[in-house]
Amino acid sequence: MIFSMTGFATASQQTPHGSFNLEIRSVNNRFLDIQLRLPDDFRRLEAAMRELLTTQLSRGKIECRLLFSPVHTVEIDQQLDHGLLERLMQLEQTIRTRYPSAASLTIAEILKWPGMLESNAAPSEEWDAVGMTLLQTALKDLKAARMREGDKLKAILLDRILQMRQLLQVASPRIPALIASFEEKLRARLEEILGNNEDDRIHQEITLFASKIDVDEELSRLQAHLDEVERILNQGGVVGKRLDFMMQELHREANTIGSKSVDLEISRISMELKVLVEQMREQVQNIE
Question: What is the pTM (predicted TM-score) of this model?
Answer without folding.
Answer: 0.71
